[in-house]
Structure formats: C-alpha cells, structure tokens
C-alpha cells in the first residue's frame, strides 16, 4: 500500500479533518463507509480522533468547537506556515486562524483563498499528515470547487507555486494542479453545485466498492448527493454525512 513517513512537499494536499457535532455517530458512520479504525488522542487535544487504515493515519474526526459549523478542512503542506500565511494575505486571501503550534505534532493555520474557499496550512513536526494514500479508506484526489476559478488558480500559483494542466472532456474552467511536476488534484468552478453554495474543497476517498460504500452512506443516515457513475478516471459519486458534510467516493483509477 502507498505509505509515507516524511513530510509532504509544500503545496501538496496532505491531510483532511472533519468537525462533527456527534463524535460517536460520526465514527460509526465513517467506519462503515470507509472502513476506518479510530484512535482518540485524548482530552488534552479535544478528543481529536485519528482515522486509520492498517495502523496508519488517513484523516481525522473532531468535535465541533463553539460557534463552528460541521464540515471538512483540507490542509496543504508548507515548509513554513508563517511565510505561507503572509503570502496568502499578499495575494488576495484571508488568514482566518493565525499560525500556532500544535504541541508535538506541527504548526498550522487556516485561511481563505481569493475565491473564498477555506483550507488549512500544515507544517509538519511529529506528524506529517496522511501516512497512507491511494488506498481504500484514504485520500485519492481533491477538488477546489470555486466561485471564481481564475482567481483561485492565480492565488494558488502565487502562494504555492502550482502549475496547471487541461483535462480533456472536463469543463473549460477545470484543470489539474501540479506540485513539483506531480499532479496533486483539481481546481475549477462549482461544477453544478446549487446556487449559493460557497467555494469549498471536496475530498475524494478511495473505496474498493463504490456502490457498497454508497449503500452504507444511506443506511448510516447520510445522503447520496450524486449517484455513482463510471468516468474515464474511475467510478465515483458524491455523498454527505449525517451532518451535511460532502465528500466523494472513488473506486480508483481504471487499469491501463
């Protein structure tokens, strides 16, 4: 299985966590849908709960903080979160949570890009972020779905040095983004989201059977947002957990 023990290259999506109002219900839901096992880091860290596959961390679930809505935060790796935060402000973004240390694990901040999409910034310390990827239960892809795709592309190129590539058959405003020459995700417009939906990041989690995972979504109290379909990039669909947080399920790239 693809695993990692060293910090992710700066600008790479490296982690996702989910803020939920009911931690036991969330672990039951995601355990059934994604096969996660859980490790509670304890009261000192607010019961931040690591979601693991085979003993390696793939994501995390945590109780919502006062005044915080449920949702997911995708983190981009940084070699220096303070420098990245300054670049965010200089290029039309907003620093929502100033950089701070997470004892023993790293340093982080939270920001909005120039199109209003929220994301986290992670500087690895004792924790690199995702320790497993492109395996069932782990991240396989990420989309930035933005109300202004052009502004978003300019922002991320300026802050993280992303480069972009066209995707045949995709909407004109959709592109892949690359970090150090390696494709790391996609960025584009809202892709049919209901009017009024804010800019956001959509994480894609790999599963061995998309249809079975979608069935688990429904039986676990979640919602199927977009039915699973076959695409040139594999079978995939979009779901929402019982608290309304959306995520995609992806069956992996087809052979060949």
Automatic annotation (TrEMBL):
PROSITE patterns: VOC (PS51819)
Domain of life: Bacteria
Record's protein name: VOC family protein
Classification of source organism: Bacteria, Bacillati, Actinomycetota, Actinomycetes, Pseudonocardiales
Domain VOC: from-to ranges: 12-124, 138-252
Xref: Pfam families: Glyoxalase
InterPro entries associated with the record: Anthracycline_SecMetBiosynth, Glyas_Fos-R_dOase_dom, VOC_core
Family annotation (CDD domains): SgaA_N_like
Transmembrane segments: none
Provenance organism: Pseudonocardia oceani
């Amino acid at each position: 299985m693809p695993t990692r023990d060293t910090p992710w290259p700066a600008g790479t999506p490296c982690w996702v966590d989910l803020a939920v109002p009911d931690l036991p219900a969330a672990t039951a839901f995601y355990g059934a849908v994604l096969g996660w096992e859980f490790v509670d880091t304890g009261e000192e860290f607010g019961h931040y709960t690591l979601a693991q596959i085979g003993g390696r961390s793939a994501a995390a679930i945590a109780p919502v903080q006062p005044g915080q809505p449920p949702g997911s935060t995708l983190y981009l790796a940084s070699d220096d979160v303070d420098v990245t935060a300054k670049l965010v402000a200089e290029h039309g973004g907003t620093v929502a949570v100033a950089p701070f240390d997470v004892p023993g694990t790293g340093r982080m901040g939270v920001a909005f890009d120039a199109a209003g999409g929220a994301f986290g910034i992670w500087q690895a310390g004792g924790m690199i972020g995702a320790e497993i990827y492109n395996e069932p239960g782990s991240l396989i892809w990420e989309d930035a779905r933005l109300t202004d795709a052009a502004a978003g592309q300019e922002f991320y190129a300026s802050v993280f040095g992303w480069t972009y590539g066209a995707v045949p058959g995709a909407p004109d405003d959709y592109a892949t983004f690359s970090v150090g020459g390696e494709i790391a995700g996609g960025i584009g417009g809202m892709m049919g989201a209901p009017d009024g939906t804010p800019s956001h990041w959509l994480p894609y989690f790999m599963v061995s059977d998309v249809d079975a995972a979608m069935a688990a979504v429904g039986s676990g109290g979640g919602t199927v947002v977009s039915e699973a379909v076959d695409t040139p990039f594999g079978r995939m669909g979009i779901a929402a957990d019982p608290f309304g947080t959306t995520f995609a399920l992806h069956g992996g790239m087809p052979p060949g």
